[in-house]
Amino acid sequence: MKQVVQNYKSGELALLDVPAPACKPGGVLVRTAYSLISTGTELMKVSEAGMSLLGKAKARPDQVAKVMQSVAANGVSATYRKVTTKLDSYTPLGYSLCGVVEEVGAGVDDVAVGDVVACAGNEHALHSELNWVPKNLYSRVPEGVEPRHAAFGTVGSIALQGVRRGEPRLGDVALVIGLGLIGQLVVQLLTASGVRVVGVDPAPARCGLAERLGALVCGEPGSDVVENAIAELTSGHGVDQVYLAAGGSSNEPVELAARLARDRATVVDIGKCSLNLPWNAYYEKELDVRFSRSYGPGRYDPGYELEGRDYPIGYVRWTERRNLECFVDLLARRRIDVEPLVSHVADFSVAVQTYRRLSEGALDAVAVLFRYPGAANPAPESVTSVTLPRVSPARVAPKNRIRAGFVGAGNYASSMLLPHLAERADVELHRVATTSALSGANAQRRFGFEHAGTDIETLLADPSIDAVFVVTRHSSHAELTRRALLAGKAVFVEKPLALSEAELEKVLAAVAESGNDRLQVGFNRRFAPLLRQARNRFGTRVGPASVRYLVNAGRLDQGSWYARQDTEGSRFAGEGGHFIDTVSWLLGADPASVYACATPGQADLQILLRYPDGSTATIGYTTSGASSFPKETLDLTADGKVLSFDDFQRASLFGRKRSTSPKLPQGRDKGQEAELAAFVDAVRTAGPMPVPLSSLVSTTLATLAVHTSLATGAPVRIEPRG
């Protein structure tokens, strides 16, 4: 087999043929799929190997001290032979990988041959085709986590242990100094813990990456932007924790930490930087300086690492292995995203050239992976992403009554929206604009609009109108919404919000330009009284959930404009947001990824949604079913309970006892009246919109991602940013 090695005396790097390791008791033999280059630690070793003997001595004074002790004990000649022999030997590189179990040693019963595992250890998770890994240094990788992402397990554990040493709490403000590989992971872990993060790094690209991954503000050392942000976030007190994830010989990180930390803050050293602490600054603030020892408790303990003796969880909650398991679980639940950190993936056959490019600066990277022969290399998920604009809270005065304008007054508007609004004392139906003059006249006669016409511009320009309802054909929704937002109106637009990402970007650009985010999309099912009662009866969910949602959509009438896919988008693009929004509301989160497949020759779809906490939902959207079968049935399973919802007529909860709501005698309330009430109240009181803009955007992206997934045959990640 092949393995990357280095001669510390000459600096030579090589990809050697070496014997395959045996599978010893207490561990497993793992065939590597991906291994990760630590661009900090490993490149430091590579750089030191190229130094002169004097340079090596200056770089590693700890080793010089050991040599001097050996001279005192064994004499100069014996020590010289020992040192030169060690320097002139090949040593391995690497300590973080993911692979497949090829053989299981005696005493191991928690994994089997064929399982995918993340592995750690600078003697066991090497850049090598095969590795023997002891029991406490591997973790089984859950289904759905890509091997290339699981290869980050060790560096993820290092970052996780560093964060644990800082003991962050909800609402804290933390400063991360150094936004390399470890720093970027620390930023995400802190953000996932409810901590507000500010970052510092001399590289603008790394600052930008950290902001995309959750940091509020990042800048160069000494930047006014960073110091002003910390002053604003902490009311001038300083940050609660500082995480030193920088390397090098500069003392600037510890000096910056002292300047920006609050009184009695915690400073955690994760990287390897100069620690010449300015005594006065650290003494006056009584700063608590802590060190984070690699992957966690168990590191450097042969009894733990080699002999498999675990520490009792009651005494040591987070060990090396438990940190590794935790990080892999965070990947599975999409609380951590390592894909943006992957700068380069190289075949293992060109490992030496890759190290050389990194050392010479020809390859500027945060994280580099080696891909091994035979490694599964599925098509990566595509990503659908937009940037959410930042807007200030609405500066709209509350009022007792709002004026509404309607663009469109077709069958849905006239049967499901206008009757409810016409009955409200706090709504004045002021103006309606329709394509046909006659339909406008009919709406005016039936619902009491003060003005009716066909001119949309007049309606949008009317300064007395507070809210515009867009109830037209799908192809016009995004453009009309954009124009209404720019006109300063609150907007209620029937689904869909947009038929393409380009249309969605234009809507968000209008929000950014106008500062007006007063937007609601007609996702009414989350407001259905029976469904809301059922969710309340289910109670607070603890573990991940599984949702099955069958939509028996049926066939369209011949000639329906819904079938004009070339102009109005697909049928699912038009109404699928309803069902995705319902599931997301039930689960209390927005989808992280979408995968879809279609029945050949039919318009039937099967859609799999994954959520950040590990929950999944399948939406079966069918047009080939029987019309006598209910249109919408839904089951939510979690925590030993099942919520069964039957077409807005009956809901049952199965747990220790079964409870069933009475069947509605007539009709189905799908939530339109309650949705309109929530929207009107928000406009009238100048309160927040019923559904956050980020959720509306995520649902729209997920709906559009269905067709992307159908086209590519791969999952699509959903990433609204900002």
TrEMBL record:
Organism superkingdom: Bacteria
Organism placement in taxonomy: Bacteria, Bacillati, Actinomycetota, Actinomycetes, Pseudonocardiales
Family per similarity comment: Belongs to the zinc-containing alcohol dehydrogenase family.
Entries under InterPro entries matching the protein: ADH-like_C, Gfo/Idh/MocA-like_OxRdtase_N, GroES-like_sf, NAD(P)-bd_dom_sf
Source organism (scientific name): Prauserella cavernicola
Protein known as: Bi-domain-containing oxidoreductase
CDD domains per UniProt: 2-desacetyl-2-hydroxyethyl_bacteriochlorophyllide_like
Cofactor: Zn(2+)
GO molecular function: metal ion binding; nucleotide binding; oxidoreductase activity
Residue ranges of every copy of the Alcohol dehydrogenase-like C-terminal domain listed in the record: 182-300
SUPFAM superfamilies for the chain: Glyceraldehyde-3-phosphate dehydrogenase-like, C-terminal domain (SSF55347), GroES-like (SSF50129), NAD(P)-binding Rossmann-fold domains (SSF51735)
Entry keywords, A to Z: Metal-binding, Oxidoreductase, Zinc
Pfam family, one: ADH_zinc_N
All residue ranges annotated as the Gfo/Idh/MocA-like oxidoreductase N-terminal domain in the record: 402-523
